């Protein structure tokens, strides 16, 4: 495992949990996580991985990884970061690898 990918994935876990929980993520949060030049890549990766994490039924949020819910936005964020940190990191690593391959 490339340690750079692992570090980048780790930095994006919280932003991903936030985005997946429908909490607004600011541009500067992507910049802080992956740097200015990689912010668009960060946004793409976060958007893709979030799709696998949360499903929404009307205003209620459910966890796609363990089917628990419903959660509020804040509850969903806490559930993802506390219960699924390593799974989210792995999913991010896979997407980042795909992004790097697409660039080569
Ligand atoms: Zn869950």
Q: Quickly give the structural class.
A: mainly alpha
User: What Rg, in angstroms, do the CA atoms define?
Assistant: 13 Å
Quantity of strands, as a count? 2
Main β sheet profile: 2 strands, antiparallel
Average pLDDT, to the nearest integer?
95
Helices, by number, come to 5
How many domains comprise the coordinates?
1
The H/E string reads HHHEEHH
Distance between the termini: 18 Å
SSE layout:
Elements: H1 3-20, H2 27-34, H3 39-51, E1 54-57, E2 60-63, H4 73-83, H5 85-103
Antiparallel strand pairs: 1-2
Helix pairs in contact: 1-2, 1-3, 1-4, 1-5, 2-3, 3-5
Bound molecules: zinc ion.
The site of zinc ion has 7 residues, from helix 4.
How would you describe what is shown here?
This protein has 104 residues and is mostly helical. The protein has one domain. It is 66% helix and 8% strand. It has a two-stranded antiparallel ribbon. Helix 1 packs antiparallel against helix 4 (73-83). The mean pLDDT is 95. Residues 63, 65-66, 68, 79, 83-84 line the site of zinc ion. Zinc ion binds at residues 63, 65-66, 68, 79, 83-84.
